[in-house]
Amino acid sequence: MGDGIESAVHSFAAALQIAKDNELDLVEIVPNADPPVCRVVDYKKFLYEQKKKQKEMKAKATKIVVKEVRFGPNTDEHDFNFKLNHARKFLQEGSKVKAFVFFKGRSILFKEKGEILLLKFASELEEWGKVENMPELEGKRMIIYISPKKKK
C-alpha cells in the first residue's frame, strides 16, 4: 500500500482512513484494474519521483538525427566521392543518411540515372550502414534512407 503499510484489499473508506491516520495521501496508481489499485504515499514525493523517472527515460532515449545528401541526376565522379565521404562520416557518428536525387524540369526523364546513382551510393556505404528501403520516387525526388550499423 505504501511506505511501511502492508498491501491488502480495503474498501475506499478504510483506505482513506489509513491514509489520514498516517498523514499521507491516497493515490490511485492503476485506475483500470478491478478493484482500482491505490497507494498511501506523500503525493508531492510521488509527483517528484514520477518526474524523475520521466527525465531519466528521456535521457536514455536515443535521438535519431537524419542528415541529407543531395545529388543531381548528372552528378559527376568527384562530387559523388565528396558526398560519399560526408555520408560515411555521418554514419560513423550514428546519424541516419537520407540521400536523394532532385530532378529539375525535363531531367525527370532520366529516372534510371538517379536510381543507379543511389544504388551505387548505397553499395559504397554498405560497410558503414544498411539500406532501409529501395529508392522511391516522391514527386521530383528519388529518396533512399541508410541507417548506421550497430557498433560491436
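(the above was protein one; protein two follows)
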Amino acid sequence: MTPTERPSRRVAILAVLAAACWGCGGGGDGFEHYAVNGTIRHDGDPLKSGTITFVPGGPGAAGTAEIVDGAFAIDAADGLSPGEYRVEIYSIQPTGRKIENADDPGAKVDETVNRVDRSFNVDSTLKVTVPPGGFPGPLAFDVTSPNPAAKKKRR
C-alpha cells in the first residue's frame, strides 16, 4: 500500500462503520412508535409505585414505564408499535424486615414483596392491542393484591 492509498482506505473503513451504525438507537428499529399513558388502580386506590411492561406478542417495539402515584407514560420515541401486547404490572416494595442474603450467608438484606398479584405480572393474561395510529386516549388497569389463600396452595 502506498502512502496515498492509506487515507482513502481509512475513509472507506469509516464510511462502512458509519453506514453500519446508521439508525442505531431509538426509532431506528424499523417500527412505528406511539406514545402510551394511563392509570393503574391497586385494590381500588392509585398504585403508588411500580413498573408496567408491554411485551409484544410478535414483531414490535416493547415498552416499560415507571408507575408513580397511579400513572404511567411512555413517550412516542420509546413508545409501542401497532400489535398485541401482554401487560405486566409489578410493585416491589420493602416489608421493613431483614432476611438472610442467599448470595452471602450471614449477611442480611431488606425483604421485598410484590404487592401486585401474579395474575397481573408473572402469570399475566392482561392484553392490549395498539391500533394503527396509536391509542386514542389513556389506558386504565385495575389490579389486586396477592390472594393469601392462593399463596398457601402454591407451597
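Reviewer note on protein two: The first strand starts at residue 36 and ends at 42.
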